[in-house]
Amino acid sequence: MEKVWNSDDLLPKKFKSIMKITLLFLILGILHVSADTYAQKAQVTVEVKNGTFYDVVSEIEKQTEFMFFYKSEDIDNSKQVDIQVKNRQVTDVLNELLKNTNLTYRISGKHITILKKDAVQQQKKKISGTVTDPDGIPVIGANVVIKGTTVGTVTDLDGKFSLDAANNDILSFSYIGYAEQEIEVGNRTLFNVKLAEDYKALEEVVVVGYGTMLKRNLSTSVGSVDSEKLLERPNATNVFQGLAGKVAGVNIALNSGAPGGSPAIKIRGIGSLNSSNTPLYVVDGVVGVDPDQIDPNIVQSIDILKDATSSSIYGARGANGVVVITTKEGKKNTTNISYNTVLSAGTLARKVDVLNAEEALDVFKRAYEAQPGRIAPHLDPSNMFTHKNDLFNPDGTPKYDTDWQDAVTRTAFSHQHSLSFSGGSDKLTAVANVSYKDNQGIMLETYKRQLNAFINVGWDLKEWFHLQAMLNVGSSNARNSENAISRYTLEALPFLPIQYEDGTYSRKGDYPGAEDTENPVRILKERKNIDKNQYTLANVIGTFKITSWLKLTTSFSRQDGSYINSSYNPSTLFGYGDTQKGKAEKTHKNTMSWTNEDYLTFDKSWNKHNLNVVAGASWYYSKTEKSELGAENFFDDYFEYNNMGVGTVRSKVGSDYTDNKMNSYYARINYNFDNRYLLGASFREDGSSRFGLNNQYGFFPSFSAAWRVSNENFFENAKKVIDDMKVRLSYGTVGNAEIGDYASMARYENKRLPFGKDMTTIVTLKSMANPDLRWEKSRQLDAGIDLSFFNGRIEFMADYYHKITTDLLYELQLPSNSGYEKTMTNLGKIRNQGLEMSLNTRNIQSRDFLWTTSWNYTMNRSMVLDINDNIIGKWGGRIEEGHPLNALYGYVRLGTWGTDEAEEAAKYNKKPGDIKYWDKNGNGMKDGEDQDYIGNGAPKFEMNMTNTFSWKGFTFMFDLQWVYGNKLINFTRQLMGNRVTFSNAYADIPVNAWTPENQNTMVPSLRLPGDGYENDVDSWSCEPGSFLRLRNIGLKYDFSSRMLSAAHIKSLSLGFNVENAFLITNYSGSDPEVTSYDAVFEQGVDFYTYPKPRTYSFTLGVNF
Fold first, then answer.
1. Residues 6 or more apart in contact with residue 151 via CB below 8 angstroms
2. In the chain, domain spans
3. How far apart are CA 1093 and CA 934, in angstroms?
4. CATH superfamily of domain region 226-334
5. pLDDT digit string, tens, across residues 544-597
6. Does this model's pTM top 0.70?
7. Residue 630 and residue 641 in contact, taking contact as beta carbons nearer than 8 Å
8. Which residue of 53, 732, 987, 1060 has the fewest CB atoms within a 10 Å radius of its CB?
9. Which residues contact 246 (CB under 8 A, 6 or more apart)?
């Protein structure tokens, strides 16, 4: 159902007030579960029979680091004690030892005090005080808790607090970003506490390529997301589904609802035509990793390098931004075992509103009646077509009313499991993870299953040498559907059954005059298209500490992949394998790549200066081997693709081999003076075998500067409100080499052509060599500001960028008389400029309640500045100078021809009721020159907002996505709106169709096939694509450690989530977040994509 809305509808006053907010709630949850660490970890085995209190205490002290303190006169050592336990927590032994006595215990660090209960229950007294930061500014919302209890309070707007406490109580003072302080009450009643900065908390580290930097010292634009935020969407099958909406300037669109589908990712717009617009992925220093191979549960953090200066250290591979994924490492002297599972059910989120059986038949009736002497077949007594009696009652009414969208979909049940171990000793750490995902698709028979194993081990072999080794292996198996299924589903006639009573499947051509296509349910059940993947990633990193300020890092990584696609169209499927008597195809591709990195890191501080320098070299090699085989004419469908030799006709035979080499030299310099003035520069030279002999090397420099204004003396008075302020400026150049191997060389291809009665293979020239092919380059200017208010309670970041991309890599079509089809060349110039903002706030913070909000805003504008000639895409996309890169083109529909315009319509070979188009060039005919700009496939802006509420153990969150100002070509509607009686149609078509009484309409008159039918893309099918989506809503409960200690469980959580919970849009298609094929030419084109589900998930997480 369509809903009309505007910006005030989407963001009423309540929403506008909410949009000042984000990160606090998650942090509070961490702080809330931090008690009794060593006591929970320490375990003992005690076998004391007929012993004493001292015997038990002595055993605990021998096996742990605990020391006991008590008064001997309080202990009855004559009492016989029998305790026999194995691998139990110390607290369990103490509870058993002191049971039925007047004694209790208190644990403080590694000290255990035994005392009488009446000594504990001292008289409470009122205490009060003030909590300030290092500059004496009151801290609002600081936690003041009596240690070992849940009794406490938070400071008010003046930093003051009061509560009741006994003399022997210990007060704990804590606040985010400051070190926790503990003070014994004693005889005092007034406490003035000055918190010290917790430098470990403040020193948030960001991975920036070949090293790390403190986030507060960045002079570039980097977005960061930790593992906790990634897992807010528990049903995410890859890391980027969890990343969606978390970082400004990063557009992550899930274009398809297929199981395990990979989203399309763009950082700061589209910067290339033919070359890939996908960012570079780096996993633990390994460049070019497929992110689908990384399980979200093993990710520690993701850092996104957005501007040229941060990404230029990766040179020719960083033009589209860099996504740096850091996996988890074990922690020394700890042991942790965790298990996480997600059970989910997905249903079709949104249906397209099409005609039911009676409505469709009425359309057919009206279309036939429009032609004198014609009558619809189901109403014609003389037309006894084959299935007439099966489909219709004697009066012509339908026997069936099939909802084909229900017929091809199902409730998809999925489950995911992840088992992890982490821990370590003084010299060794390790993380191991095994995960399995079994995801059903909502379309029949589709699925994706993936098994993954990961291990990451670190050794301190010497004080001066650390070795890190990582291995990630896995496999996946998926059954896919083709996009045409969605088309066949929407166009299927609703008065046809899925199957007739005898079990045979219906087909659209069973009704005379309808376009004959196969039953979509049958296609899903009988056609097979299977993808199988196996992959391995191994990485070894050695770090040599030469001096305290100089180290050498050397690494070697290797990636291997095996991909097999197998498909079979059985002979029973009309339009698929019937004419070929079964058609089988198999593609097998093996890939291998290795990378060697060697670099020095110099990091030295003196006085107020810090200098960090990285310099190194990289060598990269990859190869791909591919083979294809196709066969037809099987005497039986039993063999499918498993015995291709049975097929007597070879429809496809081919093989391919490519390789790619790159060597690079790079350096980065960062200088910091007094944490006020920050300067940076990076340089990289890349050499690639993909480019012409005259331009194989490219040089990519960048520069940045930042000024921390808040550290200046003149800013002191403002620090009461603004505790941190930093302005940034950067400029740099990056390249793009993501074109095919051998793109600069002459290439040949083989073709199979008919020769007499047989088929023969010939070799033809395909691509002309271009020895002058050079690097595509992007030059980017970035200006930004980082602000923090009220002790980090509000954090704001904004960036403006201006990016010019030149020497665009494009595969240009050549004239047929050239002897070649195409050549890779450099042409044109495009611009991307935009604004990014993010706001994170802690709105309400008390002892038991926390509300945080995270909001970000992204605006990008692209423009084609120079192009040699118009480059026409398909399905409405075009690149033309002076228009946006995502421009949509088509004919401009003015309406329909009226009866009083019959004479004018005839000049265009039209009649009243036909579509009336704008004759742009005025030549009296409809031709390609009449096409015009009809919209922009890119939105004017995108906003995302996450609100998180925490109360005691409960966490509630919701995630909103608002995309505004884009247009979509609904090609589904275009075809179905103009071809009624070929197939089903949108429900509003017959209501709005032209009639002599309804001539002021955009919809042509209902007509039979071939009667003035047009299916060209035009402005009528270009619809508003704005939408508001509740992307995720969830509730989680974390059980308290006290409830779990008896079961030896560290933490336990249960949750429920709904993804894609609701959608508000005026778009008439299945979902407005779509790009069917090409991200450049077809962003904003909806051409029958896999529908998206609404997913309900139950989660369980447990740690031992």
1. 145, 163, 165
2. 32-120, 123-201, 226-334
3. 30
4. TonB-dependent receptor, plug domain (2.170.130.10)
5. 999 999 999 999 999 999 999 999 999 998 887 777 889 999 999 999 999 999
6. yes
7. no
8. 987
9. 223, 225, 229, 230, 854, 856, 944, 946
